[in-house]
Amino acid sequence: MHLTRRAAILASALAMVLGSSAPVRVHPHVLAEARLDVVVNPDQTVKSLRHLWRFDDLFSSTVLMEFDKNADLKLDDAELQDVSNTVYASLAEYDYFQLVTANGKDVSMKPPPTLIANYEADQLIVLFESEPKEPLKLAGKVDFGVYDPTFYTAIDFVEDENMAVKDLPSTCKRSVIRPDPDEAIAQNQSNLTDAFFNDPSGTDLSKIFATRLELNCQAQG
CB under 8 Å to 221, separation ≥6 — which residues? Predict the structure, then answer.
């Protein structure tokens, strides 16, 4: 199987045309339950983001069939490495589905040094850790999230506790924001073009629907 097809199956990161549906009518093809841990340095800068995605049974079984080269109904170390390499390469174009902003401005993240794929209890699990390219101080409003700009994958944080902060400074308040799709469209109407409604997968505005971990931090002293 060619890399591009496997990338589409695995990471949902290719620019797939999903038809002329409005965002509220687009249905994802892949579901994943996620956990995000924000790790903070002693100086109140962000050290890293730790991601864990657990994919649905149907998608996971598809991955098993595509990558189980010796047909033993399991993924050995070499096959899992093949999965990892494919996901890593295909997500690179989309910044690994990460959404990070500081006071409304996008924050650039370094590519994760590695990505690990496991297959446990009939589910594909993907883990990786990334760091900000520049020091990211927890000051004002800082948001973290995960979203698929192609609308192909629904990455869901089932519990608010699945978006966590290790060593959250006492000057910060944590909240989890779950946008209502209709309200998100209404609030961003001026930024939404016909192209978004005709093909939402061809734009980057799907992030307005993403669940976000929001930290509001006051200046010290």
Answer: none
Distance of CA 67 to the CA centre of its chain: 23
Closest CA to 124 of 39, 185, 38, 34: 34
pTM: predicted TM-score of the whole model, two decimal places: 0.81
pLDDT in tens, 147-195: 988 778 889 999 999 999 999 999 999 999 998 766 756 666 666 555 4
DSSP letter at 188 equals T
Cα 79 to Cα 115, 123, 157: the distances in Å are: 14, 15, 28
DSSP annotation string for 41-107: -TTSBEEEEEEEEEE-HHHHHHHHHHH-TT-SSS--HHHHHHHHHHHHHHHGGGGGGEEEEETTEE-
Beta bridge partners of 105: 102
pLDDT band per the 50, 70, 90 thresholds, residue 59: very high
The token pair that represents 134 in the structure block:
């520049």
52-61, 88-97, 137-146, 212-221: least confidently modelled range: 212-221
Q: Is 82 exposed, middle or buried (0-12, 13-18, 19+ CB in 10 A)?
A: middle
Distance CA 178, CA 184 (A): 10
